[in-house]
Amino acid sequence: MRGKSSEQIMEEQPGARAERGFAPQAVQITQLSRTYRTGGTVVRALDEVSIAFPVGSFTAIMGPSGSGKSTLLQCAAGLDRPDSGQVTIGGTDLTGLDETALTLLRRDHIGFVFQSFNLLPSLSATQNVELPLRLAGVRPDRATVARALAAVGLADRAGHRPAQLSGGQQQRVAIARALVARPAVLFADEPTGALDAATGKELLATLRTLLQDPDAGLDSIVMVTHDPVVAAHADRVVFLADGRLVGELLRPTAAQVAARMTGLEADRC
Ligand SMILES: Nc1ncnc2c1ncn2[C@@H]1O[C@H](COP(=O)(O)OP(=O)(O)OP(=O)(O)O)[C@@H](O)[C@H]1O
């Protein structure tokens, strides 16, 4: 698969994949390992993790600090290279791609949202949403950008700069920017971490709506969070400890998630 061309990737559009029945999973991760070496220290951040995120699923990843949550998200999104294992999105194994093909796949099929909104302060909401398209050399279609902002409830804030928006509105701009290219998968690392509880709840409701909206073209959302209340908004919560998957809960309550986390924290002591 190494050196796969962009044409080959484009043939495997996520939208086509379900129709053709090739890959019922939005993301398939197989025996993923990632080791960090700093000085004489070796940290196995991910240790042969295998997990799939089905089409239509909203998954939360939880675990104690340092358990490998962000590393898993970064490797799954093609932002970091694992030592071994596979990540398959839209029928394409990311780990087999050269840098150019990986950049194209990320651009066309993967959205990423961070805790810090990472908006450019001098640009309007519209210009921030357009930015990834412009950086990719694509002329932004006005209607597409307007639709992306409307989908996150910001049709009437398109001309505002980040300083003129609330935290929740800024994160909505970041989500519109992540979704403007209609990616198959949205990866979110603590998307509500900088928001108050009520604003975070609204944002999670918007993510759920986007996942259910056929026009958004979104197959799956994978979110890292430390907050059991936030995790309980997902369909499934998976738990990591010491770089390994150690369990999952389906449609759990916040109390169930909190209890499982307390158990994992106690195991570390
Ligand atoms: N760039 C890096 N260099 C060295 N070690 C790293 C690096 N990134 C992560 N690690 C180590 O890998 C392990 C997993 O880190 P990771 O950030 O994935 O955990 P996490 O579960 O997201 O943690 P947190 O909840 O604190 O954000 C930790 O022990 C961390 O110190």
Automatic annotation (TrEMBL):
Alphabetized InterPro entries for the sequence: AAA+_ATPase, ABC_transporter-like_ATP-bd, ABC_transporter-like_CS, ABC_transpr_LolD-like, MacB-like_ATP-bd, P-loop_NTPase
SMART domains: AAA
Keyword Protein biosynthesis among UniProt keywords: no
CDD domains: ABC_MJ0796_LolCDE_FtsE
Keyword Oxidoreductase in record: no
Keywords attached to this entry: ATP-binding, Nucleotide-binding, Transport
Entry GO MF terms: ATP binding; ATP hydrolysis activity; transmembrane transporter activity
Residues in ABC transporter domain copies: 27-267
Pfam families: ABC_tran
Chain intervals for the UniProt region annotation (Disordered): 1-22
GO CC, any one term: plasma membrane
Name of this chain's protein: ABC transporter ATP-binding protein
Provenance organism: Kineosporia babensis
Native organism taxonomy: Bacteria, Bacillati, Actinomycetota, Actinomycetes, Kineosporiales
